[in-house]
Amino acid sequence: MRAPLLLLLMFLVFVVPVVLLALSSLAPGWRFPNVWPEAFSLRALVYLLQHRGQILISLGSSFLFSLLTVLTTLGMCLLPASVFAGREFPGKTLLEGLLLAPALVPPMTFAMGLHFLLIKCSLADTLIGVVLVLAMFSYPYMFRALVAGFQTMGVDYRACAQNLGAEPVRILLTVELPLLLPAIIAGGSVVFLVAFSEYFLVFLIGGGAVPSFTGRLIPLLSSSDRSLASILTLIFLFLPIALFVILDTTLVRVYRKKGMM
Amino acid sequence: MGDSGFQTDPGEPSNMNGAKRILKLCPLLVPYAALFCGGVFLTVSQSFGLLTPIPYGGGHLEAYAGLLSSPSFYASFLFSLQVGAVSALCAVIAGTLLAYWVWRLPARLQTAALIYKIPLILPHIAVAFVVLLLWSRSGILASMAHSMGWIETMREFPNVLYSGWGLGMIMAYCLKGIPFAMLLVMALLVRFDARQIETAEMLGASRTRIFFRIVLPRVAPAVHTAFIILFLYSFGAFDIPFVLSESRPGMLSIHVYNMYFKRDLADRPEAMAILVIMFCFAVLFIVAYSMAVRRLESAERKI
């Protein structure tokens, strides 16, 4: 396909919706039959500033449980991924298939049973409960990324450190973790996005006690004034992008400093 | 370093025994057993009327009998299946083609093509909102049609979102699914040697032939993975139908939600029975699909 045509098509499908969201957030009264908004106003922005307390709380809470989910999945997957990157053992393929299942089957199917379990352990309506269920749903992404990371790293670094007399824990922390950082970030960003953008599981397990940004957005989606929903949606887009850019530049800087690049 | 492989494995003692391996797997196996298997176990047992929040009066299979004799359950099941299949098929086809075309772009234009990642970042409910903004009868496309003189009033605009075909949901799932399929396919294309295509071109192969005989077999694993994930996700997920749902026939997830939250606890087994059927369907589908792919591949190899 011709390059300009392809880029135009992709622009239409992937960028135009964002442009429309930006327009709609600045034009609260934009509705049929106007193709272009009649008047622009900053009403949605003013609303955002007026309710900044609640919005920041929900944003902060979403951010917190997403970050905790990333750390939890990392803790869950690090050692098992090293085993799976290693030599064959009986039942490996079957076990791998079983371990990937939580990302494939509809999450409702285990989350609703789990809800009952969490109520019994009084973990329902708590941050820990939300993190647990999100981690259970999203860890396969971290797991796959880490297995690939261990495989590209190989075992020579570990062998070298071992021959020089390093303890296993020290090898893990000072040799393997820094080398695995790209894989951790790749898996971690997917896990973060999945957790950050999930509505239902947080609603089910958090039960309203754990505020979330998606929970804040849902009632606005059906309101007749679309500017508020548009502006919150834009925050959803730009916050993770900003986060990834910051992460990327710091990572590059750290690597340069250590002479790894 | 490269692919040193793990055959020689000097880091691990060659007699790494089973016990140590299981110990290392524990951080994953324990939560897996407790939360995932525990969750599924409770869903199953509650569907039989056991371990329910309040004692269940009916027989163990009553919930299933009720479901299997209700036409609305079959309608919902087929509807979910159709929305899942159509959206996953469209997303995978479009995603694979786009990934291939982007991969063939000159290097300086490939950076611009990164815009495809935008919908990956947007949550499902936000993508559903974009569809609402565009396609509702008071939406932007209706306004455009009006200004073109195609329609006079809102009512003349085709009722895309409530057509009974789930078109709104399918579009939202496609918008989310196309970049996902692209991502998976591109990951394989990066390691693909473009000279193979040049050789085929020099030998006179047509573009279609090149795509189907050289590129597609190479990216097939990613295509299959993307299809399984996208199909099962849109079959059973809740977020997009919650924003864009049509009432009848509804998606299964919405039915479960209504039974779980809006009706009383006595309906709990029936909600859980729907979930169990969805779970079994997902597992059967994964197994059947992977077996079919394996058989297809081995048949091709024989030729």
Question: How would you summarize what this structure contains?
Answer:
The complex is a heterodimer of chains A (261) and B (303). With 261 residues, chain A is mainly alpha-helical.
Question: Would you spell out the secondary-structure blueprint of this structure?
Answer:
The complex is a heterodimer of chains A (261) and B (303).
Chain A: H1 3-26, H2 43-50, H3 52-85, H4 92-104, H5 107-120, H6 127-153, H7 156-163, H8 168-197, H9 200-206, H10 213-221, H11 226-257
Helix pairs in contact in A: 1-11, 3-6, 3-8, 3-10, 4-6, 6-8, 6-9, 7-8, 10-11
Chain B: H1 18-47, H2 62-68, H3 71-104, H4 107-110, H5 118-121, H6 124-135, H7 140-147, H8 167-189, H9 195-202, H10 207-236, H11 239-244, H12 252-262, H13 268-302
Helix pairs in contact in B: 1-13, 2-13, 3-8, 3-10, 6-8, 8-10, 9-10, 10-13, 12-13
